[in-house]
Amino acid sequence: MAKTPHVSRRMMLGTALAAAAASSAVAATPKTETIAIIGTGNVGTALGKRWGALGHTIVYGSRTPESEKIKLLVKSSGKKASAVTQKDAGKTATIIVMAVPAAAGIEALKALGDISGKIVIDAMNEMTFQDGKLIEPTEPEALAARLQAAAPGAFVVKALNVTSSRAMTDPAVTGGPVVVPIAGGNAEAKLRVTALLKALGLEVFDMGGADAYKHVEHLGRIYVAYGATHRPQRLEFGFRTWAPPQGR
Ligand SMILES: NC(=O)c1ccc[n+]([C@@H]2O[C@H](COP(=O)([O-])OP(=O)(O)OC[C@H]3O[C@@H](n4cnc5c(N)ncnc54)[C@H](OP(=O)(O)O)[C@@H]3O)[C@@H](O)[C@H]2O)c1
Q1: Coil, strand or helix: which one is 14?
Q2: For the segment 184-219, what is each residue's pLDDT rounded down to a tens digit?
Q3: Ligand 1: which of 37, 43, 62, 68 to mutate, most ligand atoms within 8 Å of CB?
Q4: Which domains does the chain have, with CATH numbers?
Q5: 39 CA → ligand 1 middle, Å
């Protein structure tokens, strides 16, 4: 009789540990991901080729998946790459990269259907120009927040919007480390995204939760504004950060 509560406490502890282990198994980053890339422009193709070469499964979502250009792209994106329409691209993916013009981003995300449980990397920058200069977007909410509202069951991580497409997949081109700020409300999602970014050779700077989307988007506007005033020069752009040692 006296043993029962003891055994029961051990069983309870075991159950709690098993639950913790199970939850860390969920949090663990798989060796390879299935990544849907919506948009096959500068960003989509750079990421797809590089992640494909690293062994990830790439599914391009394109408005013209049957075109010769996309067939060639698929061939150069690893052994497991494919291309389908944008609306079908998210079906098998665990991670979805939004790499279309921001003005089309919300509609393109909604077209994916129910993407609950999937991670969405929002690499887009809103670009409104007046007299050749970038102006602040008129929408009060960050684009990433509007994407999150459009797909409430998904986990939106803002990332890769402040770095040029070549520098994000070949940071050595800048002559030094490239730091990519990210923001998102789900810690596990940020870990999975961080692993993918580190595999590209990038350093990751976690700016915080969903309330920090706007900060990352502001940094994106610095990149876009700089690019707009330095045309037609081909711009490779990335941020570096330095933090003082603790206690100084
Ligand atoms: N370029 C950079 O270095 C850079 C860096 C950081 C962030 N960004 C941001 O990343 C996003 C993509 O930039 P990008 O330079 O790759 O653009 P891009 O070269 O113009 O490519 C965008 C792609 O999106 C698809 N697309 C175009 N119009 C669309 C529409 N109305 N509806 C749905 N899909 C459409 C097209 O792919 P399909 O023809 O296959 O459908 C197109 O190739 C933008 O939001 C940009 O602000 C760009």
Answers
A1: helix
A2: 999 999 999 999 999 999 999 999 999 999 999 999
A3: 43
A4: 30-229 (3.40.50.720)
A5: 5
> Can you say how many angstroms the Cα of residue 63 is from the centroid of all Cα atoms in its chain?
21
Distance CA 33, CA 49 (A): 14
Q: Which residues contact 24 (CB under 8 A, 6 or more apart)?
A: none
Minimum-distance ligand 1 atom for the alpha carbon of 45: 16
Joined together, the tokens standing for residue 2 give 């006296």
Distance 43 CA to ligand 1 centre (A): 7
Percent of all residues in the chain with a pLDDT value above 90, rounded to a whole number = 73
The per-residue pLDDT for 236 is: 85
Start-to-end CA span in the chain (Å): 59
Other CB atoms within 10 Å distance of the CB of residue 233: 7
Which amino acid, 48?
Answer: G
| Residues in the chain, overall count | 248
153 alpha carbon – ligand 1 mean position (Å): 24
Residue keyed to tokens 């010769």: 68
Q: How many Å lie between the centroid of ligand 1 and the Cα of residue 38? A: 8
136-148 pLDDT, tens digit per residue, is: 888 999 999 999 9
The pLDDT confidence band at residue 29, using thresholds 50, 70 and 90, is confident
Is the previous residue joined to 5 through a cis bond, with omega within 30 degrees of 0? no
Contact 124, 161 (CB under 8 A): yes
**Amino acid 28: pLDDT:** 61
Cis ω before 232 (30° cut-off from 0):
yes
Q: With cut-offs at 50, 70 and 90, classify the pLDDT of residue 11.
A: very low
